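ok so i was messing around last nite and threw this chain in just to see what happens. nothing serious, just curious
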Amino acid sequence: MRSSAGSSGSSRGRTASGARPWAPPAGEAAHVRLWHPIRAALDDVRAWRERVVDEQVRQPFKQAFREIYLLTPAEERTATYSNRYAAHIVHYRRLYALFKERGWQANFLGRHDGGYNGEARGEFGGGEWRACFYHEPVDDEDGWTFEHAATDQVRFERGHGRRWREAPLADVPPLVFSEAMRDVDLFVGVTSIAADPDWADRGEDRRTAYWREAGFGALTASAEVRRAALERILPRTRIAAAAPSTAATWSCAASCAPTGSISGRPTS
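result:
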């Protein structure tokens, strides 16, 4: 938790280091909000993670180990849109189901009017902000519906009365940006063909190169958090002596962690 003066604390009334946080004078009101790692200093985040692991705290939702997403230099240059999760090939029906599960609104892709331009919208910041995730069907498939889709840009809009106006990425509050991109990371990470272990059995096609690159490329923000969690948890287990210790192996373990688990991709 955090008081209006900005000191962070736990539900037991202490900070991660054990000190008592600031408290308002008796009789005065104070604003309290949930602690979020994007508002905290790196040392504070590390201290909370250590405490959660040391005390074996089971949080009702991912908080101490919550992934954070900051504006990148590339996004500063593009200014109004992000290509961070563009050009991925995803299983479309899984993607659409995940939109619904996370509370995003999206049109359904298909061979009908408007069915070739996908746009999913999710509201954040108490409904003041909206993230728009664009996608389109892969154009080499037959049938009335599409098995796969290709991802595109993420843009942000701000509400002005009953209208929405596009906003520069730099104007989006860091917490709103981080939570929206966390959802998009989930959408891509769970539904990408790179997460499909059976894809390689289909033989060579023009998407196999993408499968290899996305499946064994650089770690995403969620994978970095999984690696940090593994580095803290595994040395405390019975298999510590047999656990791998090289950075390369940690990276592989993090990128290959199953979805939906405590060390998986964003879930809540």
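not much to say yet. The CA atoms of residues 245 and 251 lie 10 Å apart.
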